[in-house]
Amino acid sequence: MTDCLAITNLSATLPDGQRLLRSVNVNVAPGEVRALVGESGAGKSMLSKAVLGVLPVSVKIVEGDIWLQGNDLGRLTAAKRRQAVAASIALIPQDPLTALNPSRRIGPQMTDRLVKILGWDQTRADERVRTLLDEVHIRDGERVLRAYPHELSGGMRQRVLIAAAFAAEPKLIIADEPTTALDVTVQKQILRLIAEMQRLHGTAILFVTHDLGVVAKISQNVTILYGGMVVEEGAVDQLFANPQHPYTRALLAATPRYTDPEASLLPVDQSVLSDLAKAVETADRDWMSSHGG
Amino acid sequence: MMQRIVIRLLTMLVTLFGVAVVVFIVIRIAPGDPIAMMLPPGATDADIDRLRALYGLDKSLFEQFFIWFWGILQGDFGTSISLRQDVLGLVLERLPATLELSILALFIAVLFGGFLAIVGARERGTAIESGIDVINGAALSIPDFLWGLVLILFFGVLIPIFGITGRVSPRLDLPFDTQFYLFESILRLRFDLTKDLLSHLFMPALALALPLAAIIAQLLKQSLKEVLELDYIVLARVKGFSETQVILREALKNAALPTLTLIGVQFTFLIGGTVIIERLFSYEGLGNLAIDAVINRDLPLIQGIVLVFAMLFVLINLAVDLSYALLNPRLRHG
């Protein structure tokens, strides 16, 4: 079976030649929930932006391919690529407070992709969106559809965005730290909601996060990034039970456990980080020499 | 909302009263005597005093002001000293010409400026954006009356395709009932007249519009570029909308707010600019009348014209305030 998303050997650079992504390989099978974990600057956001085709202009993909449903996105024209992404990927953004247009009502913001890009008729799109608002447990859907974003709470807006993401039955959803900007109490609900929606629709999810506690709750597989490189990947339970890489071990030791809240957290050991920095340097040197400087 | 409008209307009255006081005093402090302008040299003191008494200029400033102000409250703006006609009638006869000129200028400025801003934001970081910046710089650094001279030279003298004097060709019969010639010619479907009127309006309107167009282009482009970095724009791109669609559907309305304030302020400057531009193109508007009034020291007429200009400015500011609420749903219920 073809992977839903296959990122092969992807490298992206800034204009000065500095690599932000260093030959990254990530695969997401249909229906799989894969967590993409790393601290800030690890390249996890860059990677999702590269897939979505919304990289900043200064960042260029210099090597590698992104395959979506068996199509090489790099070979498509800009318009075809937009269409392909719109038809099979959706994004649950990080901050629900800034991800909705303040001057447009919620309804049209939820249906515009269906109607304007995917060619549904408006009635069908409206019905679809109402069903989804039900699924994300918004009871007064009609009011929400007519509301402006500022009339809804952060948690409500994230529910709206989750519903909108599932509206077009995408094959893959990229969830970009969808709980980071929310209240701790709301975080748990939203996380449960995403898991529930995923089971209901069978959509593959690439779940970007820096929180290993979240990873354990929601995903089957995990890829750990550092400095734009894949450090370790595998099934969550195996990787948590038996981490191979010292960095993964250090990250796990730095994560609070609900089972033992009194246990002290350990900062990531300096020697682990300097080893990683050396590894990044070696990778860059090899890459430079194999690409003619 | 209603409450806000009422409060605004009340403050408007206070502003206008302030303007009335200031104008009244300033033009009486300024040198020049309207009576001296009217009489031939060698008039006797008795003649001068009689005329002075006729126009009420022998009374104290305080008395003069309240006579004038009481008149205004009853709709009587006084009588022009130099033209010997009712001031309100004169002003109302000329105001439509100035309104048509400034509104057309505003329209051109928004169209040009908006277009350049959208193209510049779409092509941000490219040579096209730099080109637009250069054009903006040039349009901004030349004031409207110089643009007027340049346009007269090019399109009135070297390639004479536009009218350069007056409002309409003198040989034409005008069937109009109002002074809004352009507007009325369209309503009456007399497009031959519309064309003639536009050919006279176009150059003065363009001269007034160019600096404003540049300001609009510059500010709106900047706001658009800022808005285009926001999360909901990224989401719109992921949804599959093209850059142009993203700008027009998602960004423009939110980016337009600062530009709207600016247009309000700048539009009042533009109307101020009509005074010189109308003179330059011998356009029979309020500005041209104002210059004549000042030359003749026609105190009631100057007062009347300034007060009407002030009223326009205040109304424009009110309109800008109200249009905010239309663009920004968060202000609607406040």
Topology:
The complex is a heterodimer of chains A (293) and B (334).
Chain A: E1 5-13, E2 19-28, E3 33-37, H1 44-52, E4 60-68, E5 71-72, H2 78-88, E6 89-92, H3 106-117, H4 122-135, H5 141-146, H6 154-167, E7 172-176, H7 184-201, E8 204-209, H8 212-218, E9 221-226, E10 229-235, H9 236-241, H10 246-253, H11 270-290
Parallel strand pairs in A: 3-8, 3-9, 6-7, 7-8
Antiparallel strand pairs in A: 1-2, 1-4, 4-5, 9-10
Helix pairs in contact in A: 3-4, 3-6, 4-6, 6-7
Chain B: H1 2-29, H2 34-38, H3 45-54, H4 61-73, H5 87-122, H6 127-141, H7 144-158, H8 181-187, H9 191-227, H10 231-238, H11 243-280, H12 286-295, H13 299-327
Q: What does this protein look like?
A:
Chain A has helices at 44-52, 78-88, 106-117, 122-135, 141-146, 154-167, 184-201, 212-218, 236-241, 246-253, 270-290; strands at residues 5-13, 19-28, 33-37, 60-68, 71-72, 89-92, 172-176, 204-209, 221-226, 229-235. Chain A is an alpha/beta fold and 293 residues long. Chain B has helices at residues 2-29, 34-38, 45-54, 61-73, 87-122, 127-141, 144-158, 181-187, 191-227, 231-238, 243-280, 286-295, 299-327. In chain B, 34% of the residues are buried. The model of chain B has no long low-confidence stretch (mean pLDDT 89). The interface between A and B is medium-sized, with 30 and 22 residues.
The percent of residues in helical segments of chain B reads over 70%
SS elements, strand count of chain B: 0
Order of helices and strands of chain B: HHHHHHHHHHHHH
Order of helices and strands of chain A: EEEHEEHEHHHHEHEHEEHHH
State the oligomer: heterodimer
Global Rg of chain A: 20 Å
Give unreliable regions of chain B as ranges: none
- What gap, in angstroms, lies between the N and C termini of chain A? 38 Å
Summed over residues and divided by their number, the pLDDT of chain A gives a mean of 89
Sheet/helix structural class of chain B: mainly alpha
Radius of gyration of chain B: 24 Å
Helix fraction of chain A? Answer: 40-55%
- How many helical stretches of chain B? 13
Q: Strand order within the widest sheet of chain A?
A: 6-7-8-3-9-10
Which residues of chain A sit in consecutive blocks of at least 5 with pLDDT less than 50?
Answer: none
User: Which structural class should the secondary elements of chain A be placed in?
Assistant: alpha/beta
